Amino acid sequence: MQTINVNLGERSYPIHVGESLLPQAGELMRRAGVGERVAVVTDAKIAGLYLKPLEESLHSSGFKVATVLVPEGEEHKNLATVSTIYDRLVGERFDRGSALVALGGGVIGDMTGFTAATFLRGISYVQVPTTLLAQVDASVGGKTGVNRPEGKNLIGAFYQPRLVLIDVDTLQSLPQRELTAGLAEVVKYGIIADPALFALLEENLHDSTALSRELLVHVIAVSCRIKASVVEKDERESDYRAVLNFGHTVGHALEALTRYETYLHGEAVAIGMVQAAAISLRERLCDKAAFERIRRLIFRAGLPAEIPSGVDLRELLKHMEVDKKSTGGKVKFVLCRGIGATAFHWLSPAEIVAALQR
Ligand SMILES: NC(=O)c1ccc[n+]([C@@H]2O[C@H](COP(=O)([O-])OP(=O)(O)OC[C@H]3O[C@@H](n4cnc5c(N)ncnc54)[C@H](O)[C@@H]3O)[C@@H](O)[C@H]2O)c1
Ligand SMILES: [Zn+2]
């Protein structure tokens, strides 16, 4: 097991990454001082796979466990579902000392975290992420929230978990496409902060098949360390935390333009990262060799790299301009300075279009 500490003063917490961690959840939660009444929030599919070992571990460490099943999917990440969780917690007479456990992907994690942030003005919660995306990204850093019909994650709070437990064995049941999409965020960490991680992926991602469990533990731990150090510098995204949005300006625009039906998040981000690298090349921040390495690794990971010819670039730009990060007709882009460092540039639509790759 590897442990990464997220250092945020009194909001600090450990992230444990390892194999066979679910059976140790009770002990690790006790050690972290989690109160004895807990509610595990999950969906029926994940419950069928992982609830039993988690519950057994919690029971044997003396926890009193309730289970709250919520419907599966992003379309249920909303206040109506949160309200059903509140109902159960009130019904079970949960108090300030009780805690929630999010067992699932980013949808479950974001929604459970938001419920914990708001129930009784805030109770503890534990993240037990079961998708690669949630393990390297959503479960770390304390962004919680739910969607509105007008937009994703419009309602939310910064609220750090008490503990994050990452059992890589849960990835064995994850569909290959979801696993590959999660790899996009890992590649992102290499590009923005860690040439060694990038090189390790180059050596080991010969095709889109999964990395070994040992390597997964390492790669996830390194990713969490990078995210943690960004969050430690800028917890509430006043500025610097936006480096984590590398590839996301084009990625989010592509997701929105295709009404979230065509791409998984990581797939859109993969395309967005190649575009950001192409813009970096054009802005002379990144040389041709680094750009080619980025494009090749994304391709080798089994991820898409180009904007499909059917996409209208002007429409794509419109979606970038309504992005939270834009003002004054220019869009704030996170660019890469080769592999392992970033820079922010304000770019006009013309500058963006000139670099985009089909
Ligand atoms: N808080 C943050 O910082 C942050 C960062 C990135 C993304 N997010 C959010 O995360 C969400 C996306 O998360 P996601 O990609 O994990 O998707 P998800 O939570 O929708 O999970 C994807 C699917 O996989 C299933 N699943 C989960 N674990 C499984 C497993 N081990 N085996 C088999 N099936 C499994 C789920 O039931 C679901 O159907 C979005 O709502 C996004 O806004 C949040
Ligand atoms: Zn992302």
Written account of the structure:
There is one protein chain. With 358 residues, the protein is α/β, with parallel strands linked by helices. The protein folds into two domains: 2-173, Rossmann fold (3-Layer(aba) Sandwich), CATH 3.40.50; 176-355, Dehydroquinate synthase-like, alpha domain. Helix content is 46%, strand content 19%. The chain has helices at residues 25-31, 44-60, 79-91, 106-118, 132-138, 176-193, 195-204, 213-233, 248-257, 265-282, 288-300, 313-321, 349-355; strands spanning 2-6, 13-18, 37-42, 64-69, 99-104, 124-129, 143-148, 151-158, 163-167, 326-327, 330-336, 342-347. A seven-stranded mixed sheet has the order 1-2-9-6-5-3-4, with helices on both faces. The chain has a three-stranded antiparallel sheet with strand order 10-11-12. The protein has a two-stranded antiparallel ribbon with strand order 7-8. Helix 3 crosses helix 4, helix 5 runs parallel beside helix 8 and helix 10 packs across helix 13 (349-355). The radius of gyration is 20 Å and the shape is globular. The chain starts with a strand and ends with a helix. The model has no long low-confidence stretch (mean pLDDT 95). Zinc ion is lined by residues 137, 185, 248, 265, 269.
